[in-house]
Amino acid sequence: MSRRAVITGLGVISPGAIGVKEYWSLLAEGRTATRAISHFDPSAFRSRMAGEVDFHPLKSGLSPQDVRRLDRAAQFAVVAGREAVTDAGLEFDALDPTRVGVALGSAVGCTTSLEREFTIGSDGGRLWEVDQGYTVPHLYDYVNPSSMAAELATDTGAEGPVTLVSTGCTSGIDSVGYAARLIEEGSADVVISGGTEAPLSPITVVCFDVLRASSTRNDDPEHACRPFDRTRDGLVLAEGCAIVIVEELEHARARGAQIYGEVAGYASRCNAYHMTGLESEGKDMASAIEVAMDQARVLPPYIDYINAHGSGTKQNDLHETGAFKRSLGEDAYTTPISGFKSMIGHSLGAIGSLEIAGCLLAMREGLIPPTANLNEPDPQCDLDYVPNVAREKRLNTVLTVGSGFGGFQSAMILRHVRGAKR
Amino acid sequence: MTRRAVVTGIGIAAPNGLGPTAYWRALMAGQSGIRRVTKFDISKYRSKLGGEIPDFAPDRHLQDRILPQSDHITRLSLVATDWALRQAGVRNGDVPTDEMGVVTAASGGGYEFGQRELAKLHSQGPEYVSAYQSFAWFYAVNTGQISIRHKMHGPGAVVISEQAGGIDAIGHARRQLRDGANLMLTGGIDSALCPWAWVAHQATGRISRSSDPQRAYLPFDERAGGYVPGEGGSIMVLETPETAKKRLGSTIYGEIAGYASTFDSRKPGRPPGLQRAIEMALGDAGMDAADIDVVFADAVGEPELDQVEAEAIKTVFGPRGVPVAAPKTMTGRLFAGGASLDVATALLSMFWSAIPPAVGVREVVPEYELDLVVGEPRQTAVRSALIVARGHGGFNSAMVVRQFR
């Protein structure tokens, strides 16, 4: 009898929303949470907007020592992890800790702390031989982002397989796919998974600036991320975190846990094309979608909703529109599609998990959150992108996709499980 | 029936040898690659020894356009991948492109590249930052670049669990074969040799401060006082036996027979997870401790951690119950590259019927009751090996390789 992976708990830290409840109301209302950057002075940069989180680490339950020691992305993971564990009703005393694992996703790890410490140790970048006298004792934990997975494991008491999955902007999907695989193969009964990212520092902003991948609609940051709109001009960076509890179905049922849905299919493919560019037809994303559908044994007409990557670049819009047509055929035209990055920006390795969390909530509520800022549809994007207003629909099977630097293309099918709360 | 996973090509970049043959000869001769670091002005730092690769000329192996967009670790990874594929005899068209994928381990990413661009950003301004920074530094770079170079459209992944990641990557590549891929490139290549990484390693307090290459890294020794960081690792071709057998003359080095990973709890009273990882990897391989001919140890060289590892080995295999190898005494610890290189070394041990020595170690702490192979290589048939790796923060991984029949 094969083992099935279901999701039984969620924890969310998002721009415009702390906690699952606030997150769902933001998505359902189609509110946007992107704004002018306040974390640092962005005046030297081309794109000066971001999806920033209003996060108070001490009020969120972290100790002053933790706040000093942990990068912001790790702080997110610990706080969202606690919400997810509580939401899942996991009682660690009743669990075998050796059967609990962690698969956390992050694209750029502890970049913000690394950059801060670097400017100090290198005297503003002037010293190549960085001064050893100015390093903090935990600097190595910033260099090596598996420290964040270790932190989450330590905080929750996990003693099973623990790792960080880092596949750029698909890390948030891939970490949950990794977790589901650990469950299915029997390496764990519970895996604390999801993605975290707090990349809002000069080096990250400049990376997207030099590629002209980010939006310059600096005078209108709330409406800057406009996927599938003719006037879109790039992505809006963001930070955030979603932690999901992935659990073996019978394990969840035995303890009477709520079930949000099943990870019914997952695949990741390399486009083997370019580190940042996408070919226009979306062949490899389509191939990931097809493999995920095969695993879930679901045919295109039964996909009730597609959660798009929708980063807000023209290249992406054409690429994924092509991928949906290629993999779903005629059904692509009748399946509602929407993108959350229009509301909460692109939090790199976290966004895939924020999208998974949003999809599970959408299934529970029977409501498809919209694509915000979609007023002038691009004629080359001729599918149903659910513009601006949420749409009621009973959802049994949902597809979510991601695409990122390095050529990674990922797809996951989430499915309602009989008996799960609606 | 679970699909099996065999290694048919081994690419190695190590401080004491480029390529499996040069590396193996160095191991057999006890030649260490640990020396005073020359890549930057090491005189400013407390720790001065590293496992530095001395004569790697990227422009001899890679096209011009790759060089400005790649860190040292990516160049080494691409070259090691080429060697591994050549050794496996894989040519274009042998395996459909969507059945081939890549899983690599990472730790700090393209760190030297990242340091240079950070310095430019903060000392010169945003307009001086390379357009390649976004992907030349990030952790996923090697998987991405390898997949592009060899047109591999199958599954791609990157795992990070510090030094344990090299085993986790190979374990995850094996999953991809079980799920339908037919050939995977896997392993890791890493480097600690730029100033910004060096200070971070020093901050852990676990790097040796010795200036004598013969005495700096002495795992399990009475005089153990930390490890030496280095650069390098291994990328291997992992495939199903059915795929390998389609190519005439392909060599199967061995099978990835077992894999498991665990995490150390910091709760009082909980035992370290290493022994459990070893037992689970043996169980996954369907083997007993008595079936293992050699253990490649994690061998940190820090007394407290050495003791935990010795205890785990003693408990599973009995006092002096199995030969223990620590060839990383000749390369230093290679982080994301270290455990993959140990897996590659274990496969070479099976191929050459010999166990490489730990160099420098004279007196193994008697209470450890370890049969550490020291001084000279031990010539003996090796049919199977256990490889152990631990990552900073509590990661434990174990892998069993055995001869393929």
Overview of this protein structure:
The complex is a heterodimer of chains A (422) and B (405). Chain A is 33% helix and 18% strand. Chain A has 13 helices and 15 strands. With 422 residues, chain A is of the alpha/beta class. In chain A, strand 10 (305-307), helix 11 and strand 11 form a beta-alpha-beta unit. The mean pLDDT of chain A is 97. Chain B is α/β, with parallel strands linked by helices and 405 residues long. Chain B folds into 2 domains: 6-245, Thiolase/Chalcone synthase (Peroxisomal Thiolase, Chain A, domain 1, 3-Layer(aba) Sandwich); 258-402, Thiolase/Chalcone synthase (Peroxisomal Thiolase, Chain A, domain 1, 3-Layer(aba) Sandwich). Chain B is built from 12 helices and 16 strands. Chain B has helices at residues 20-28, 58-61, 72-88, 111-123, 133-136, 141-149, 165-178, 195-203, 241-245, 274-285, 303-317, 338-352, and strands at 6-14, 17-18, 34-36, 49-51, 100-105, 156-160, 183-191, 231-239, 254-263, 294-296, 323-325, 354-355, 371-372, 378-379, 384-391, 395-402. In chain B, the strands form 3 sheets. In chain B, strands 1, 2, 5, 6, 7, 8, 9, 10, 11, 13, 15 and 16 form a 12-stranded mixed β-sheet that branches. Chain B has a two-stranded antiparallel ribbon with strand order 3-4. In chain B, helix 11 links the parallel strand 10 (294-296) and strand 11. Chain B is globular and about 60 Å long. Chains A and B meet through helix 4, helix 5, helix 6, strand 6 and helix 7 of A and helix 4, helix 5, helix 6, strand 6 and helix 7 of B.
